[in-house]
UniProtKB/TrEMBL annotation:
Name of the protein in question: TetR/AcrR family transcriptional regulator
DNA-binding region, residue range(s): 27-46
Presence of the UniProt keyword Transcription in the record: yes
Keywords: DNA-binding, Transcription, Transcription regulation
Name of one Pfam family that matches: TetR_N
Source species, domain of life: Bacteria
Limits of the HTH tetR-type domain: 4-64
InterPro entries found in the cross-reference section: Homeodomain-like_sf, HTH_TetR, Tet_transcr_reg_TetR-rel_C_sf, TetR_C
């Protein structure tokens, strides 16, 4: 087993556990048990749980951004720029329907630890700004007003929170419908 394989297993296990139980509800022993990576090895790679959380959030950021852009490219590639914007909400609908969906890890972690961890807030803000920048690219390609990107981000984040609290994926469709209204109003 390579060092990188151990790191990957630890990050995957920590992400699953943090997502399911929250950060404070998961100890390093649980991550060791779920990953099969010895505790000594975990602490060699991640001297503290905060270091592990930072690495999990960084990995999650890259994974989510890649998943969204990949979905939009694959599912709206031949569509209009408007369709590409709306495809973001189609991605959310699929994500919200996954059995392990518990909401946005960045929003959840910021809610749990944001008052005590500037690092969590920094990584979460960076992730949300990157999503906003992606929405801005889509809005620009559709020749829509720049302010629409911020409005779409509010819709997406609101849908994430609503879907997590309600335990159903319907919020994605509702947010998509609201996004379509905003786009149509901006075109007029």
């Amino acid at each position: 087993m390579t060092d990188q394989a151990d790191v990957d297993r630890a990050l995957d296990a920590a992400e699953r556990l943090f997502n399911a139980r929250g950060v404070q509800g998961v100890g390093m022993d649980a991550i060791r048990d779920a990953s099969g990576v010895p505790l000594k090895r975990l602490y060699r790679e991640f001297p503290s749980k905060a270091d592990l959380l930072h690495a999990v959030l960084e990995k999650r950021d890259l994974d989510v951004r890649s998943a969204i852009t990949g979905f939009v490219d694959a599912n709206a590639a031949s569509g209009s720029p408007r369709d590409r914007v709306l495809a973001v909400f189609d991605y959310l609908a699929g994500w919200f329907a996954e059995p392990d969906f518990r909401g946005c890890m960045f929003l959840n972690t910021a809610g749990e630890l944001g008052g005590t961890s500037q690092d969590v807030l920094t990584v979460g803000r960076r992730h949300k700004l990157a999503l906003r920048d992606y929405l801005s690219e889509l809005v620009d390609a559709a020749e829509l007003p720049e302010a629409l990107a911020d409005q779409l981000l509010v819709l997406a984040n609101g849908a994430m929170a609503t879907a997590a609290l309600n335990g159903t994926p319907e919020a994605a469709g509702q947010a998509r419908a609201a996004a379509a209204v905003l786009i149509d109003a901006a075109v007029r």
